[in-house]
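Researcher: Here's a chain I'd like modeled. Treat it as a single chain, no partners, no ligands.
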Amino acid sequence: MAILDTQVFKAIEYLEQGELVAIPTETVYGLAANAFNENAVANIFKVKNRPSFDPLIVHSSSLNKAVDFTQTISDETWKLAEAFCPGPITFIIKKNSKISDLVTAGHDTVGIRIPRHPLTQLLLESLDFPLAAPSANPFGFVSPTTAQHVEDQLGNKIPLILDGGPATVGVESTIVDTSEAEIKILRLGGLALEEIEETLNRKIDHIQTSSSSPKAPGMLTSHYSPGCPLILGPIKWDELEKNEPIGLLYFGGKPKVLNNIVPFGLSESSLLEEAAQNLFKGLRFFANQKVSKVYAEKLPEIGLGRAINDRLIRAATKITSA
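Model: Modeled as a single isolated chain. Structure tokens:
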């Protein structure tokens, strides 16, 4: 515990000085800065090469503390927080002037999350300010689920990576817009849609597309690149080329093996929770292999399968220019 205490103390010092620190959460690792310090927040965008129109999530140790930098918090938000916080859920809430427009990309709302990881909980409880923290990776690439992933991509750009072990959920938080009367899911994630609907006792709409000015992070069409084309859909085995290495991201039992196929199994036992934990690990695996493309099939559209499919669709989307 002494080593962890030392890490936390160092993280506090860096964050108070306006520096960036990579922090562990149960979903993915985040790149954190003082959410009240515009210069520190601007450095997040610079280090990630992230477009300024993509807003950041603000992390707090509790929803009670978030009252300080938001406007009215709805009864539904409190109900969901009581059921799932700390945990993999983010609330879109009307902000007040303490949160700058840089954090929210000009929107009058802010994403608030209470992460479950004990190390980051301890850090947040020790600070006098919340932390703005997107995933700790270059923009558009696979989100990191271990400290080593952060080290590989951003290690020379930040002074400290708070190592809290592998992420236990493995995909980003579910984002729920509770800023208006009609609640919407803006991003599928580590908390299943069914659990939210059961808690609120009603169906919730899911927004599947976004403009160039998204209200929440993770809504842009193209994201999560494995470093080569990802082809999503039923695999036509007879059409696979035999003269080049091809990646195969599979779910369930092991598929037939061809000499040119480089496989990665999300969960041979067909467990959605295990597949979510392994998704970014798998995409990162192919980024380090010499494969020309990656084939993948959609998972069942239930529970965390929806969030996994959402990430696969974005990984498979090509950016086109007008």
